[in-house]
Specification:
It holds the Pfam family BPD_transp_1. Keywords: Cell membrane, Membrane, Transmembrane, Transmembrane helix, Transport. The chain has 271 residues and is mainly alpha-helical. It has 2 domains: 33 residues; 206 residues, Orthogonal Bundle (MetI-like fold), CATH 1.10.3720. The protein is 83% helix and 0% strand. Helix 3 runs antiparallel to helix 8. The longest helix is centred in the first third of the chain and has 43 residues. The two termini are 40 Å apart.
Length: 271
Amino acid sequence: MSDQPVTSLSEPRLASGWGAATGSWLPAVILLLATVMVWEAVVRIFAISAFIIPAPSEIAQSLVAQWPTLLQATLVTAGEILFGFVVSVLVGIAIALVIVRFDWLGRALYPLVVLFQNVPKVALAPIFILWFGYGLAPKIGLILVIAFFPVTLSMLAGMQSVDRSLLSLMNSVGASRTQILFRIRVPHSLPNLMAGTKIAATLSVIGAIVGEFAGASDGLGYVIQFASTQLDTALVFAALLLVSVLGIAFYYAAEVLERIMVPWAPKFSGA
């Protein structure tokens, strides 16, 4: 008798949780499936050449046929993205801390950071190849210059939006600038910082592909370039599909990290 109320209460909760989880991704899945079906139908009905736009079924066939090559390329690109993303986050955090902690250095550094962000990153790719060769270093360099800025900007926004009355209280008890920075400003900036890391995660994918376009012997960017020279459009789309999967995976990995580190941060519900 005592177990019956527990069961009746827990079942609605489980059903509610499952319904909420399903409702969050089900519309996206339906839209994706509808897009694929329309794409397949249009290609078949209008007899569009696979050289121009391959049908989804042809992309899937190419994905299966070239899977060993694509898997190896995916692992290479994923390693570049992970390494570059970590370096970008660390550098972005360091720059933000320096700008806030040292006023004179911050006033000098911040305009240079903004100015550097306006430099076309694609134009830097051949320079990095010239400086660092065709190894991992130029890819990491490109990811860094592309992805560090949203981390720095987001953390700065968080650290500079602290309640002035809280800063006045810390000053009144004799706290130093370093103590205020690490006890007040940095914790307050964590939600902004995690939002910046999610942006940096997707930008890291772009940086890795741009680096592989400029010069590489492996990776998904190399596969895309090679398939383009062979006029194998289906393989190009298959590689692009895997690039998109990597981008989604890194984005949601950053979101999981956000939920662990700052569970109080507001979340986008899609409502």
